[in-house]
Every structure is written in C-alpha cells, then in structure tokens.
Amino acid sequence: MVSESTIYVREVVLDDLKYNKVVHETINGAYRSEGGWTTEKDLVSGERVTIEDIEEFVHSNGKPNTLLYAFDTSGASEEVIEKIVGTVQIQPTEDGQEAELGLFAVAPSQQSRGVGGLLVRSAFGKMKELGYKVAMIHVLETRIGLLNWYRKLGFEETGERIPFVWPEKLKVKDVCFITLKKQL
C-alpha cells in the first residue's frame, strides 16, 4: 500500500471548529516553539493565539476577515487522513483596497515543503476574488530570513515602521514591524 501526500488550502467552515486544538498548536508552534525557521520565541513571549481566539475567527469567518487552512491529506484510497498544517487570515484594511495577511503559520514539521508559499498564493487568489488590489503584511524588523522570503513572493518594503502590537510581550525592546506590500 503506497501512501501519498497532498497539500490543499480551503476557506474555513463551521465544521472546522473540531480542529481548534490542532490549529492552536500549529500557530503557537510556528511562532513560539523551538522548531521551525519562523519562530519568534527569542523575541516575543506568551501565546500568539488562544483557542478562544480561533473559535471566534471560525465563527466570524468572512465577516470581515477570511480564514484559510492548509490540509495535508495522506494515506491510501481506503483510509485518507487529513491534518491541518497551516493557516492564513485575510484582514481588510479601512480603505477597502488592501488586505493584510495575518495568522500566517505553518507547522514547524511541515516548513520548507512549500506549504507557506501555497497558503500565501491561495490568499492572493482569494484577495483578488474579494476585490482587493494590494496585499500587505507586517514583519518584525529583525526577521531578516522571513523578510527575504516575502521579497521572493513579490512583497516590497514601504518604509513604514510601526510599533509592536503587544509591547508587554516583547523580550527585545523597541522592535518594530516593517510594512510590506504587493500589488495583486
């Protein structure tokens, strides 16, 4: 029996509430764990997101934010196993022309397999479908590898720096976000 693996991305539905614990572990693992190249554990303390936050995001999906999950399906045709391996949320800005990528996370065990690129490209497609013209993301200025990865996806720095949203969680003081944008 040959086991195949396929990654796909889709918009969240209410039935996905059953994945809240796994989504919680995926997001916090990507941001706050030892593993993976996207961790911020040396920069930021505390959880990135709570299970209650995730429940709220799923319940309000599409109003106004849109949440997408990446699934890995593996197994033989008789017994397919699905597991969540990443997330991204599309958050509209006030002008209605731009949307920000948020809650972007890939499980550390799944990083460097193309999951992140697939999630971001899926988000770009959904953004276009929703009528947005520009994708935006905020990245901590000290995250050089991550900034370079976003540049490869077509993002450009705007020159804007903004304070970290939760300064009390910063382990390294005075670190700011850099704003990056990409025309869709």
TrEMBL record:
Molecular function GO terms recorded: acyltransferase activity, transferring groups other than amino-acyl groups
Domain of life (superkingdom): Eukaryota
Alphabetized Pfam families for the sequence: Acetyltransf_1 (PF00583)
Domain annotation N-acetyltransferase: ranges: 41-184
Protein name, UniProt field: N-acetyltransferase domain-containing protein
Organism (species): Circinella minor
Source lineage: Eukaryota, Fungi, Fungi incertae sedis, Mucoromycota, Mucoromycotina
